[in-house]
Amino acid sequence: MALMGIQLVVSLLAASIMQRMAPHYSFARWLLCNGSLFRFKHPSEGELCALAGKQMPKQNKRDRRQNGENKPLTVPKDIDLHLEKAPVNAIDALVLRFFLEYQWLIDFAVYAMGVFLFTECYCSVVDATKEVNIGSIWCVLTVLFSLKTLHTLMSHYFRSEEGGERSVCLAFGFLSLLVAMLVLVVREDYLEFGLESGFSSLFDNFEVFARQQGYAEWSVPVTKLTLKLGLAAVCAYIGALLAFPGLRVAQSHLDAVQMNSHRPIIQILLHISFLSPVIILLLWVKPIARDFLANAPMGKTSITLVPSAVFDSVRLWIIVGLCVLRLALTRYHLQAYLNLSQKWVEQMKKEAGRIAAIDIQRKVTRVFCYLTVVTLQYLVPTLLILFSTLALKALGDFSWGMGAEETPGVTPALVIPTAAPVVSNSFDEDEEGVEDMEEDIQATVAHLSATFSALRAVLTPLFFRGFFAFLTWWVAACQVISSLFGIYFHQYLMHN
């Protein structure tokens, strides 16, 4: 296996560029600070007093405390308050909560996409079947880092003193556990993930690997049931992570549709983007997707819309297209979230009574302070689906083309290459140190090559097809559950 090849050089180059370019140019920073997003400034106490028709108190806060007065400045709620707009700039964004985590993850995803595109072009030109697909490793790392970012956000909710957010995460986690256990017992005739064949391939190859390591009487102690229970626990964890992102996407979708009420084309795209997880769910339901497209009923006859042999490639293209659409509509959702400040002010004007000026300022400022959190809640689930699909394509040996594909089989035997002995050809004592270093490098490369060979033989494309297909489907399912509940909550429960 060619380990030290051009793919590794490009991967190291991408990592170096990402590290050096981050302080100067960042795609994540450009996404928020390119001038297309507008935030609302909170009004000062003087502006609120002028709108209320009274003068600003001459005593400052220290004088009021010395006089025993600690009453906050209050104004009527029905004042004619209009918030001032200002474009979001880099200085404002640097103080936002979780901005550094947001910037690093989005930039890493961008460079991971670049490395993946290079490896796809490289593999289409050169026969790289014996090389390690570096692009797939970047995709897997992006999935893991996305889950870590969602875990950081969820831990913030768990540290909340109120406890309501913690209860929501736990409730969605238990609901996801029940749904996952039901999904995992559905037959492959209805949900065509390929988990059964993938697990069989994993067990068979691992048993061969154990025997070659000297464990002749080794039997796999982990049954499929135990593995499925562990997978169900992981699904519950992912469901808890995606609880609040789904609720937030539902609210921003409703606000974005209302904000673009005069633009019907944008509204249609917003609805398609919101329903994209539902479309992804249906793509793995065999009677609805593969069987219907391969034998679409047309009167007494049936026609073939998409041949079954190329359906996998079409499914990959559809998922990538839906993810690109959702990413392209990011600005509309973020601006709809920032407009919550003005929306809250308009709602306040309809109420009677008085309100403290500091409460108005806090409410307006709080919306902007959580901008990066909302951005992560919108982007990370989409990145999970996108890079899980790309990993499915790369590790599952799928093709972007429309040609027929053969189903990868189970590796019948596992042969681990051993490092060839290195013969010393030193002629004097000065060359011995250099040759010893070369021998160590060659031994290290041979050991890494043997390790990757063993992993590729145990974790076959058949296993990766089942695992990443299920992961992609499950992330979409969690988004559907949480988003639909969010629509019901914001449309009905909030108004009752």
Structural overview:
This protein has 21 helices and 6 strands. The protein is mainly alpha-helical. It has one domain. It has a two-stranded antiparallel sheet with strand order 1-3. A two-stranded antiparallel ribbon has the order 2-6. A two-stranded antiparallel sheet has the order 4-5. α12 crosses α15 and α15 runs antiparallel to α19. The longest helix is centred in the last third of the chain and has 33 residues.
Question: What's this, in brief?
Answer:
With 496 residues, the protein is mainly alpha-helical. The protein has 21 helices and six strands.
- Total number of helices: 21
Largest sheet: 2 strands, antiparallel
Distance between the termini: 64 Å
Percentage of residues in helical conformation: 55-70%
Domain unit count? 1
- Percentage beta strand: under 5%
Q: Biggest sheet, strands in spatial order?
A: 1-3
Signal peptide: 1-28
Protein name: Transmembrane protein 161A
Main location: membrane
Transmembrane segments: 135-155, 167-186, 225-244, 265-285, 367-392, 462-489
Topology:
Layout lengths: L5 H16 L5 H7 L4 E4 L3 H8 L8 H6 L7 E3 L7 E4 L2 H5 L4 H27 L8 H25 L5 H20 L11 H18 L11 H18 L1 H17 L4 H11 L1 H8 L6 H5 L1 E3 L2 E3 L7 H18 L1 H9 L1 H10 L4 E3 H13 L1 H25 L34 H29 L2 H33 L3
Helix pairs in contact: 1-6, 6-7, 6-19, 7-19, 8-10, 9-21, 11-12, 11-16, 11-19, 11-21, 12-15, 13-21, 15-19, 16-19, 17-18, 19-21
